[in-house]
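re: ur question from earlier - yeah i can do the single chain one, its not a big deal. heres the input i used so u can compare w yours
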Amino acid sequence: MTESATARPIHEVPTIDSVEMRNVLGHFATGVVAITATDTATGKQTGLAANSFTSVSLDPPLVAFCVAHTSSSWPTIKKSGRFVINILSEAQEYVGRQLAIKGGDKFAGLAWQPSPAGAPVLDDALAWIEAEIEAEHVAGDHVIVVSRVHHIYAADRDPLLFYRGKYGRLTAP
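and the output i got, formated as tokens:
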């Protein structure tokens, strides 16, 4: 930036409205993941939906996702040890919606198979990654969960997208 540009000095950070920030960040299209596990105390499956997911490292194999501190599912998933990050396909919008709600039986009607460690791999997922927590970093109203990858698989399907607060699909030009 040149001196003639009108910019605030770097030490003057404006107050950012959370609604405006959500709106602006919603302009970044993402995929949707379902993080699933089996509750070690009850044997029931649980999960949550997220769109903040990224690769971190190839060596060692690490990925990361963010979970809100208010999540009621994350503590159970965390205690399970190994969990699966299911990358949702375009046919799985209902899965994203179902796992995004609080309470209830999140796995009602969901078909799945066990991963090598027994965590739920959702049928028709675009891809899945079995992982366990490597590190957690508190970041505002979320926690960033860095996870070590143990098993991976991808299918030839199209992804489910999330853009401007809505689910979407890729369309051919």
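The longest strand covers residues 127-139. not sure if urs matches, ping me
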